[in-house]
Amino acid sequence: MKFAILTGIVAGPLVVLAQLNALAKDAGLLYFGTAVSPSDSSDSAYYKYENDVKNFGQYTPDNAQKWDATEPSKGRFSYGQADSIVSRALSNKMLMRCHTLVWYSQLPSWVSSGSWTKDSMTSVMESHISNVMGHFKGKCYAWDVVNEALEDNGSYRQNPFLKALGDSYFAVAFKFAAAADPAAKLYYNDYNLEYFPVKADGAVRIVKLVQAAGVPIHGVGLQAHMTVGRTPSRENLTWTLNKYTALGLDVAYTELDIRIKPLPSNASSIEAQAKEYVAMVGSCLDVPRCVGITVWGFSDAHSWIPQTFSGAGDSCLFDKSTKPKPAFSSVSSLLASASGKRPPWNTASPPTGAPVPTTMITATTSAAVTSTAAATSTVAATSAAATKSTA
Ligand SMILES: *[C@@H]1O[C@H](CO)[C@@H](O)[C@H](O)[C@H]1NC(C)=O
Ligand SMILES: *[C@@H]1O[C@H](CO)[C@@H](O)[C@H](O)[C@H]1NC(C)=O
Ligand SMILES: *[C@@H]1O[C@H](CO)[C@@H](O)[C@H](O)[C@H]1NC(C)=O
């Protein structure tokens, strides 16, 4: 399906056949991608759009590479659904962001309820990481090695890895990952990292722990599950991204959606959403080491939000009938207007970090308030993601 978009909503260039990944690459990003689920094929319009590399240049499996899927019992590995997503991506000439290895949620009970010593947990982590990454070796552009290790107040989230190894588990996980697939970009990935400083300080601490151990870490993934009315400004987002790139890392928005609450949405909330998508995508364009953007599904018919956040929804670029929304047009126009302003992303020699602007914002109370409000609205995210996997 091709969409002839007349960008009537903004005074911008006429974008004919707007195709997000093609536009993003012209604007100097490596990809514009989407999360994919094995069930996507049941919606033919959606599936057809998903499979065109001009639209999406990168896939992230929503659940298929999580621990409960890949190693449901100790030492027994299963890759069926993940294999089909990875081979579809590669035959479509798309990149894979592979997701995820060490995470407290969607863990099989043999891990979550096991009783572990430092040595036994280290060996379980090594076996899991080396088998799973080894299986997909050479096929994943990036791996989310550690996912959601932080509480919203910036402290380390309790999980079986922390319990057995203390904060050394971060470096241990990245060390095994680097050994298993030396070419993959290794990421720390979490939500609410867009709001400096409360939780983001914790992510900076994790990065520094891994670096201090002499172990490679290449990027911070900001999930970017946002809420209309609470998305920071483009400038504030850029400032935050630069805090991570100043550590010598790439950044990426890995699970972008911007939910509307309360429903029903209306013309003004849909228009606000379009502007907030522009702030998100614009901040990535503003940061030379922002690699790309992945949306967590692209139509309101397939979004995880309504089951997870009661009363919220309509978070995607396309509506329930896979028709483009104002957010799709505004993102397309933004990307089109950025064409040629950055050099093409060169994986062999990625851009170096930009200096951190010192005058933009400091850690103020209002930033903290924003962060806390957002945090409150996302606490249920991961347990609901777990529920989703069984659906
Ligand atoms: C941070 O939040 C967690 C989870 O709510 C809580 O258990 C912990 O006590 C908090 N730590 C601080 C220092 O407030
Ligand atoms: C940007 O950050 C400043 C300083 O923390 C804050 O006062 C302001 O409200 C933020 N604006 C947005 C839209 O995020
Ligand atoms: C549109 O929805 C928002 C909430 O998302 C609400 O605050 C606003 O009053 C609504 N506007 C109209 C015109 O209904």
List keywords for this structure.
15 helices; disordered N terminus; 391 residues; alpha/beta; TIM Barrel; globular; binds 2-acetamido-2-deoxy-beta-D-glucopyranose; disordered C terminus; eight-stranded parallel barrel
Describe what this molecule looks like in 3D:
It is built from 15 helices and nine strands. The protein has a single domain (20-386), classed as Alpha-Beta Barrel (TIM Barrel), CATH 3.20.20.80. Strands 1-2-3-4-5-6-8-9 form an eight-stranded parallel β-barrel, surrounded by seven helices. Strand 7, helix 10 (234-245) and strand 8 (250-259) form a beta-alpha-beta unit. Helix 6 runs parallel beside helix 8 and helix 8 (169-180) crosses helix 9. With 391 residues, it is an alpha/beta fold. The site of one 2-acetamido-2-deoxy-beta-D-glucopyranose (NAG) has 5 residues, from helix 11. One 2-acetamido-2-deoxy-beta-D-glucopyranose (NAG) is lined by residues 260, 262, 266, 268-269.
